[in-house]
Structures
1.
Amino acid sequence: MLANEGNSVLPLSDDVEFSDMEEAVDAPERIAPVIEFRDICLAFDEKVILDGISFSVRRGETKIILGRSGGGKSTIIRLILGLIKPDAGRILIDGEDITDYDEPELMQVRQKIGMVFQEGALFDSLPVYENVAYRLREQGTEEEEVDAEVRRMLRFVALEDAIDKMPNELSGGMRRRVGIARALVGDPEIVLFDEPTAGLDPPTARTICELAIKLRDLHDVSSIFVTHEMNNLRYLSSEYAVIDENGEVRFEKEGGRLCMINTEIMMLRDGKIGFQGKDEELMRSDDPYIRTFVHGK
Amino acid sequence: MNPLFRFIAELQDVSLLLWRSIISLRHGPRYFAETLRQMDMIGVGSLPIVLLTGFFTGGVLVLQTYPTLEYYSIQNESGRSVATSLIRELGPVLSALMVSGRIGSAISAELGSMVVSQQIEAMRALGTDPIRKLVVPRIAALILMLPLLTVAADIFGLIGGGIVANYIYSQDVQVFVESVRNGISTKDIVGGMIKPLFFGLIIGVVACHKGLSTRGGTVGVGRSVTNSVVTASIWVIIFDFFLAKALQYLLDIGRL
């Protein structure tokens, strides 16, 4: 029997029953946006970064944000975390309007969010164990619980052997995976990936994407995945994770019979949303800008 | 930007950082372990250079002033001369400058590196306020340790002065000690301890502000370190003048 908690795919062909899945997908708590941007505008000095951006991310959904370097992709993530404030518009997290929150209030909101930085952003004076345990230590969690949680998270990213290493002893890919483990401590409802595969070799980038897929399909985590690499987009929008009869995680392709409903792509262009939809629509688009971005010509 | 506007903007940022540091003291979490670690690094770590500075400053003061005092036949007051200069002025100022160079630069380099490698953002994303975690312990440690370092520098300065007076100018140690005793009062010592409290605050706030406002990668870190040391040193010297005047008024010291 296959397990798929997040109901990530719906059958496309008529001969497959999907009424139960539809009901599960349409449940009110699943439709309510976990992240919502309403007409967000932001400019640094004279340069407009975001110009009236509106979008939402549902529970268990992954939003892939594409766009040129410096196009405002990472800015969206910083806005969600409250690290910067918008010039106009509202930001809602879990239905809560956080736009005018002060720092102590934002600290509470950030407890629900895990963030994976481009280079990992590990604390270089702390070993891997302490990096992953950081959030729990700040919360004053008991040592036993900290130890169990850190080991669980490092197992999830397959890095239990690196537990005592310092960040400077790790490869780029390992640093990102430790960054993911650190972000996932406390089981956040939302995980934000800021170009987590930048500069990594294809197999390591694939491993990072598989972790994001597992989070989406097996842990029902809502996520934003900022990238400009088309390989990431292909993995995230065409594969899903299931647990097979042996309890092992397996990655399946959606193929021609299924359509992934929990992954959407948003492309930023000149501070506005240039495209929003499924990967199939993106691939079929005739827009010259999108074609250049997707096909390289 | 106009240099005047830049100065005002920076003054505003520094004041804001200081205000937020003070506000953050109202509620937990408080990082006592981190504060102790900083006190060890700042206090124990800076002790050798501060002692050396104090010792040789005291020595050179006697070396330079003794012939003049001898010309006026008041060479027996050499202890008074060195004690007054050291305890009122040179002890606090030189200790602050040494600590600014050693600790101010280290703080701004550490925080600057954390900024450019996104560690500060990661800290905020993980729900920790960097001001509570990084800034407050460093400022607190500087305020607590700089007066103690100053006292150590003063004592070693007097020892240095005494050795020079005794070995180079053959002055009796007893005469030197007596002159020191007559030359300084409790008010001088209190005044000499008040100044480093402010200097510690200045070095801490400036170094943390420069570190946290680092922009532009590793080059930016270097720039922040230089700016931190230069700015803190200048402010220490400027504040020393106004503090001296205020202490003259409040404690009635430094007047004949």
Note: DSSP finds eight helices and no strands in chain B.
2.
Amino acid sequence: MKLKNMTNKVRGNMQLHPFHLVGPSPWPMFTSFSLMNLALSMALTSHGYMGHNYFMFLAMFVVFYSMTLWFKDMMAESSYLGDHTMAVKRGMNQGFMLFVVSEMLMFVSLFWAYLHSALNPNVEMGMMWPPMGMEAMSPAELPLLNTMMLLASGVTMTYAHHALMNKDRKNTLYGFMYSTMLMVVFVFCQGLEYSFSSFTIADSVYGSAFFSATGLHGMHMMMLAMMLAMCTWRVYNYDFTNTSHVGAETTMLYLHVLDMMWLFMYMVMYWWGS
Amino acid sequence: MFSRILKQTVSKRTLTSSSRLFQAPTKVNSPTATKLAEVTGPDSSLIGPGAQPGTIPSNLDQATGLERFEMLGKMEGVDVFDMENPIFEGSGTMQDPYLVPTYVGYRYVGCMGKKGEEHRPYWLKVTCDEPARCWHSGVVFLGKYVGAPEHSHH
């Protein structure tokens, strides 16, 4: 580097490379153990090995607890300590892209499972889809409302993003709040739809494939609601700047990808498949 | 005593580990640097003025630490991390080796060969003590200590 004015003494006191070498943190280990607890207690509860679901809710609470503290550390590192240089931000964006790609492949496998039976219903299913005796949901009722809400969330998200880039705090906050609320309402309606459903995850390959796919999407929506709530808080807390907001960018990418995912799911599983 | 603790916890912040950090008075030694020359180290010279209430801040308002340092450099066209074009002195011969700037007395260099005779990077540990020569293309490198004299371990 051709230092123009700054002394080499000062430069030698600073970190020489742009990368963020994270300090020792308990959260990776803590989160791993709490996730293992959650998986175990969920499986044991749903297979009837435990007479109650207290452990499941306890494990869920611990997962949320560790997530909260880990996110708090990351917000401190990015907004308050300035550890996130351009190279770090680029790395996080790339990491998130890879994560999204792997998520999409997971959905691809569930579509494969669904279409494997739906395109060739065998004799045990009565050679029809939905299988004989199954009553599929109407695509014109709650699912249509959910589709409209997800499309609307795409609009409010873009509204929030443009307001953020144009330094309009009020509209950024509104945009993120509307998007969060749409996600919460989506999850609520999905819950209603599940509770009114005439079949369960244990009812034929139709129920299994349907609830695996829409349930995975629903869990992503819950995560997205949390991410959006966090973004709203970070805007409120002046964390995001008009040019540097990796957390918001990844949340937006996630929202749009999952919206598209839902459209395919709606078309294939609710509309064509019913 | 218990009621006093309870009162403190409720009246201040419930997350105690954070509250201790937040409530400790921040020492401000040097004012916010507006250009690279005014940076005095990883200290308060790299803390921005912060956001105006009711606005979305710009990065120049908000960025701190290394992020701010990088930005101040970019505004002056200086690559503070020395990543884009670190070696710009010398010609790579034994008489006139490429000079590799270093703040710690050594630096790893991936030699890519000469112009027209490029090869895949072969990694050399280049020190300030003696020239390092790529065993594939024969290009010579020598460390050049650029830090402050008192930081040197030699």
Note: The mean pLDDT of chain B is 83.
3.
Amino acid sequence: MLSSRHVLSIADLSADDIARVLETAESFAEVNERRIKKLPTLRGLTVINLFLEPSTRTRTSFEIAAKRLSADAINFSASASATVKGESLRDTAATLGAMACDLVVIRHRFAGAPRMLADMMDCSVVNGGDGMHEHPTQALLDLYTIRQRLGKLEGLRVGIVGDILHSRVAGSLVRALRIVGATPVLIGPATLMPSRPDVLGADVVLDLDEVLPSLDVAYMLRVQSERASGMPFPSVREYAALWGMNAARLGALPSHGIVMHPGPMNRGVEISADVADDTRSLVLQQVEAGVAVRMAVMYLLLGGADSGAAA
Amino acid sequence: MAVGTKAVVMDESAIDRALTRIAHEIVEGNRGAEGLALAGIVTRGSVLADRLAEQVRAIEGVSVPVGTIDISFYRDDVATRLNPEVHRTDIPFDPAGRCVVLVDDVLYTGRTIRAALDALMDYGRPSCVRLAVLVDRGHRELPIRADYVGKNVPTSGRERVKVLLKETDAEDAVVILAERGEE
């Protein structure tokens, strides 16, 4: 029971929706600590993971989430699916619809593909990452992880560091942070900043070392060599020196400050190996939160769906 | 509001006496507090479980472990309705080999207890499971009965039975609420 029957963009969610997802996820986190990590909640429902772009961790996370709720999880991956044989998204949607699925998680290299799929299908659609647009469940799990460690979200300053331009993680996280009353700060080389960062509603700072002492969270983005055209910075070494998180910069954060990364990490580029393994780096907690948060999203989308007004 | 209080069926001292009796019955049935554990169903069942544990401590001088069960994810009607609030399930003991007493405020259709049994079994295999409720209002839809009952309250399906407890509602009372159209 969220205000939308799809999760396509953080912009579709209200502050109440986000609070609801985070609270429900807390209950699911408890399930993930049990020996028997399975609930009968979504028994008989079918979740299709339509991943038309390579992904292992997000797909696995959604798959585990669905299976722990007893839903049947089916994976369609890019290389194995008919899309490489030329099938259009419209035909894929019709095919999945004919198989009577209840929820589709889609990852696609084009922004807006999940919205298009949602318009064509009767079931709920969750955006598992679309092009350079959004990755809403990643932002939700990031909020969950931050709140778990720092005890609150409101009033925090979260620095998002690196390739803002190509990052759908940043796209969702900035919107989500603003909804919960935190302050996003975009940090990175000018060549990797969107041309209109003001549209996102975040401050832009070009010098990482200048803002570090004021940040509660340093969120390091992955250098996405597969998305960037040409070379947006002179060398990997220069990037690491100017924008990478290392032991010295970790020391410049306030003592409660934490480091996050959506993974997979390029060790030695945006984050040094010693920081990645430090107790103040929450990379693995993020992965852990991912399963609980995705369980919560599936539960809230698929539960209560048969009746608008419950008795 | 569509509902009004029709009758108070238990007051504070009646609830207190019923819980004292149930605590004695639980200890008697288990021949002591050895191997005993309580599991309250949120929210008022867990309050009652805490009170029963206190009573058992007064009788036997030992603390029995108390857990909390939220049945939201085990409901048989997830497809049609969601609980507005989901709480954490917390079973701080291993149920395996223990006699676990499920505690709830009102026993009605039995569906909540069915869900709570499934939830409990996911934590381990208790040697036995008993059921203690403050009020049994009848209208069972499943073959479930309580082992310990505070008070049997015959009701019509149109009425609502509400248990109020100090910890959650600022007072102790069991009231019957009449739906509109009946008064």
Note: Chain B has one domain: 5-75+86-177.
4.
Amino acid sequence: MSRLSDANVAIAKEIISRYPRPKSALIPLLHLSQEQNGYITNEAMAHLAELVDVTSAEVYGTASFYEMFKFEPVGKYVINICGTLSCALMGSEELMHRAEHKLGIKAGGTTADGLITLEHAECQAACTEAPCLQVNYRYRFRVTPADVDSLVDDLRAGKLSDEIPAHGTLAKVRQHIPADRGVGVVAPEAATTAPSWFDGKAAL
Amino acid sequence: MTGTYAHATGFYAGDRPRIVTSRFEHADSFTLERYLATGGYQGLRAALSRPSNDVHDEVKKATVLGRGGAGFPAGTKWGLTPDGVFPRYLVVNGDESEPGTYKDRLLMERDPHQLIEGCVIACYAAGLSQCFLYIRGEMAQAQERVAAALNEAYAAGYVGKNILGSKFSVDVVLHWGAGAYVVGEETALIESLEGNRGMPRLKPPFFPAAIGLYGKPTIVNNVETLANLPWILTNGADAYTAIGTTTSPGTRMVAVSGHVKRPGVYEIINGTTTFRDLIYGDDFCQGIRDGNELKAFVPGGGSAPWFTPDQLDIPFEGPQAGAAGSMLGSGAIMVMDNTTDIPAAALTLTRFYAHESCGKCTPCREGGTWLERILRRVVDGKGTDADLQQLIEVGTSICPGDFPHASSTRLGLTAVPFPYKMTTICFVGPSAYTPVHSALTLFPEEFEARVTKRTHIPVTAVGVGE
């Protein structure tokens, strides 16, 4: 099953409704699809194409540009070890060696049990807390090689499953605009004059 | 308060004026309740009590320099939209990914309401009909905090229809990316928001304020830039310009990382704080780790040409850093001590930009990869002196002419001021060359020690024709 479920179609339609052009919703919808399936399948892209009214080739064209979308199954947990300057200065290469050794895989690989994928990442915006890594985009700061070992042990023992959702789930909170509070989309062709409140007088 | 706060990892308050980080000491700084208890949404109320052009003038007067990297004043940017063309959109650039930089992530995680209030004020002042808040894909917690804050703000009437009961209405839509550094370039951000591959658009038009999202006038502002607006509308532009210098008023956030004793994010007084203060000051990084010596530092994010101890007394101020051969970018300093392997350090940055090239411009797509591969060869000890020449040749095809660099008393070099010329649409290509050029110019001996002389073998030596 890689088409969006009925519940997710409802979420997808709500997301699409916030944009003047349905295609703008594509990246959030690809995330939704990845949240459901763990990765992006051809069938999923065909379904998203229907939802935003483009071809599935256009969906793939967009999706394949972005690092976070995976087109083959990855581990339940994806560990990204940063290797850009600040982390490199503080020993990130050693972390990668330790992780490769501990997991018995090379960067880019997935453990045989399908639990963990290891990746080399570029700057994760936590440079003062170097070296850092992310597990499914949740941070670990000032990581030591010993921390890598215990992180892997904890993931294997299922100790972090409350804190870290399976790969694909990003934010656990979604935006919801209540029907009576939202303004609705302002389409580029619909409004050709200044908004009524933009009239040179105070709004309050 | 001088300590760090356990919940705001990496942030140190110090004894300085705080405009955008004033709530970081509270563990619940991201909630509406805390925000309202600490003056939240007062700037919005003040703004809506005045005509929108009045609010625009106030922000212009404050000269809020854009905090995304280019330092263009926000009020002036808003004024670039063509008269009478509507709708206009606001796109918030929260795709923070410049190496060394993180401040927008803290502002989104720790004070999302301040950002939302800033967005709503900007829309009111510049006549923008819908706002899209684009957050970097890898920042899961920032997305959660902003989503939760938006839900609270809608329910309480600070966003959406008839804000604060007034005639003013605007939606703020949370959008998030999926991992691509180049999307931080404003036209690439717009492409991405339209559901496309995030490639920068051809220029002109130089500013999306003329033609942007869906072909309509669009203001793209950085998170930190917008986070300043509530304070300015509450306290007035005069109070803002009283802090900092005439050309660089207010405060700004700076992340200092690498080989210092206390790496951290600091809100500093704009324009007067020097690099020496930041790296050695007791209130900042407290010096180099392990009693080591400073070797070099990157003053403004991975894209910035490097400085050495010669430049320590330059203040963190755009034009002065520019004249000295670099730039301040997005407010990030990366410090290297005397144990640093300079070619290897440069390689991590060049690899970053080569990896993040979107592939649109040939000099960047091909050149970045060449730079990375040649530099890798040199770092691995397999390079020749011809490789060093080749690095410069490839760099010159991305940036023709003189490339900016710092002065060096050790080498008898005078500075070449920023900026450079470029053969690419955006700054990703030149940024792949910047670390190579800085490292080669300021530390030539480390490269020369690494390479072997290429032996020229004449054709006759192998006996051809004899």
Note: Chain B touches chain A through 95 residues (CB under 8 Å).
